[in-house]
Design a protein that fits this description.
The complex is a heterodimer. By secondary structure, chain A is α/β, with parallel strands linked by helices. Helix content of chain A is 36%, strand content 25%. Chain B has one domain. The chains are: A alpha/beta, B mainly alpha. At the A-B interface, α2, α3 and α5 of A face α1 and α5 of B.
């Protein structure tokens, strides 16, 4: 069995009124990428912060957190020394330039100046920021700032990299670049834990995905397995009320599920031919036939779904 | 799952130093705009008093000329103001707006390391600001070397005192505007009623206990004793007050601020 880097058992976290994380358990294997998936406020960030004691778990929850064999409530320094964290906000020092920002953090890890400079050179090259070494932070684009924060998290050669929404708000080029870098890091032996609310991100880089909703685990597994087990293969999206009415006039065959939102109605089925026939019968072409994706799994798992009996 | 070898994270001193170093680097990045005003401010004060106000004040105060009296007070008020600003507005901005601490706490330092490093940094700024006043006072022969060279150390202690007090206040503050109450309600009165601008001995009896409670009073006494090289036993009590203040208020500041940094 593969070595476990993180073991979390039955952890809860309450803030005054709300329960942010509820009886959550999961394990992260070495050299894998583990993703927390969920909408804003699902408890993803809170769970990640509990791993390095930026957030404390409920004392009475009776659960257990183990990172590299350490309990964050007792050995946060050891965990932080072995990990790199990319927080949700970039929080770089605007007064300082790129290399100075990194030099300051090298002191936190007690890396000697000369070694730090070499390491920073390598990291800036790795994240394709070499040309920006002397740039002011205010001159950097959003994508560059994000890559710089990732470089900062990598200063001490972390065995575990924790990223909170690494690519939120970034353009596709930068997102793909970051994904590539994360894949490379994983190959080199880094274990990666990230949160995201982009399903495609989870699908692109995660070996295991844990879908969270209102602090609870909704489902967990490999992205492909989740797709296979929890959702029909194809979706027909209808944008037209009249077309919808005609479909409702005919009885739906079995194994077809309807999911209605305000503007769009989605028909889910494993039978692509049936959906295609249905689509063909529609005039005007206000429809879109596609494969189901993780987003559909997520929406199904977290509610809003109507099945064909309703 | 066991670790083959124990992890050697940086030692306590290295951790405190790294926090201090971060603040120092950010501060000295704008050395001109940050470093010059501490020298200009006492210059303006001395010019105002020397050229204007001083002519009307011929009476000596506690045996000192007015320039000497005010100058030795300014040694510590400069430290008070810089530490108070650093650990109120400065800390609040790092905490709430820039989210600097979120990044720093992801590195191998604890919340306590972070806050204590911050307090030591504010003390260092107090030391530097006192030193700047000392340079001006010495240049204009208001006070004499070498005894006064100890004054920046008093500035350091003053900085620590007001760092702990300001951090404790900051731990209550919800919006940055609340600091207006702190500065007009506490810091400004302290400037006037702690024996900096005039001696407190002639103030009405009912104000005396308040004067004794104010931390700045003790810093001013210590600074004057150091500059004039005239020590009384009571100076030891002033020093004791400052040390106890730093430890006690610092303890509560850390305890309260912790809750804002760790959810």
């Amino acid at each position: 069995m593969a070595e476990k880097v993180i073991t979390v058992r039955n952890i809860s976290k309450s803030f005054k009124q709300t329960k942010a994380v509820s009886e959550l358990s999961f394990e992260v294997e070495k050299m894998t990428c583990f993703g927390f998936l969920g909408p804003n406020g699902a408890g993803k960030t809170t769970m990640m912060k509990m791993l390095y004691n930026k957030c404390t778990r409920d004392k009475n929850c009776g659960g257990e957190i183990n990172v590299f064999g350490y309990d964050p409530s007792r050995n946060e320094l050891e965990i932080k020394y072995l990990s790199g964290v990319v927080p949700q906000d970039n929080n770089l020092d605007d007064e300082l330039n790129v290399i100075q920002n990194l030099m300051i953090y090298s002191k936190f890890y007690n890396i000697p100046s000369k070694a730090a400079r070499e390491r920073i050179g390598t990291l800036l090259e790795f994240l394709e920021l070499s040309e920006k070494t002397k740039s002011k932070i205010t001159e950097l684009s959003g994508g560059m700032k994000r890559r710089l924060v990732i470089a900062r998290a990598l200063l001490n050669n972390p065995k575990l990299l924790i990223l909170d929404e690494p690519t939120t708000g970034l353009d596709p080029q930068v997102r793909h670049l970051i994904w590539d870098k994360l894949r490379q890091l994983k190959k080199q032996g880094t274990t990666i834990l990230l949160t995201t609310h982009y399903m495609e991100e989870a699908f692109a880089i995660c070996d295991t995905v844990l879908i969270m909703h209102k602090g609870r685990k909704v489902m967990e597994g490999q992205p492909h397995d989740l797709l296979e087990k929890h959702i029909e293969k194809y979706v027909l999206e209808l944008h037209d009320d009249a077309a919808l009415q005609r479909i409702f006039d005919n009885a739906l065959p079995e194994h077809t599920r309807i999911d209605r939102s305000e503007e769009i109605t989605r028909l889910f089925s494993n039978n692509v031919d049936y959906l295609r026939t249905l689509a063909g019968s529609l005039e005007g072409g206000h429809y879109y036939l596609r494969q189901a994706n993780l987003e559909d799994v997520f929406l199904k798992a977290t509610g809003r779904a109507l099945d064909d009996k309703q | 799952m066991t670790n083959s070898k124990p992890v050697t994270h940086p030692s306590l001193w290295q951790r405190l130093f790294s926090v201090w170093y971060r603040h120092m680097r950010v501060y000295t990045k704008n050395i001109f705009s940050n470093g010059l005003p501490p020298f200009l401010e006492p210059l303006i004060f001395l010019a105002g008093v020397g050229l204007g106000l001083g002519k009307y004040i011929t009476q000596s105060m506690e045996g000192l000329s007015y320039l000497e009296f005010l100058g030795t007070g300014l040694l510590v008020t400069s430290a008070m103001f810089t530490a108070a600003f650093e650990c109120s507005f400065g800390t609040f901005i790092r905490l709430e707006f820039e989210k600097v601490y979120d990044g720093m706490l992801a590195a191998p330092i604890t919340v306590n390391n972070l806050i204590i490093g911050e307090i030591i940094w504010a003390g260092t700024k107090g030391l530097f600001f006192s030193f700047a006043v000392l340079c001006i006072l010495t240049a204009f022969r208001v006070i004499a070397l070498p005894y006064s060279l100890l004054a920046p150390l008093v500035g350091f202690l003053t900085g620590l005192m007001f760092a702990t007090l300001s951090l404790w206040i900051t731990s209550f503050v919800k919006t940055i505007n609340h600091f207006n109450f702190y500065f007009t309600g506490l810091i400004s009165p302290m400037f006037f009623f702690s024996g900096v601008v005039f001696p407190t001995s002639n103030l009405p009896g009912y104000i005396q206990p308040i004067v004794e409670i104010m931390p700045l009073t003790h810093a001013v006494r210590l600074a004057r004793a150091v500059c004039t090289n005239s020590y009384k036993f009571s100076i030891l009590l002033d020093l004791l007050y400052m040390i106890v203040f730093i430890l006690v208020v610092g303890f509560f500041a850390i305890r309260r601020l912790r809750r804002r940094l760790v959810n």
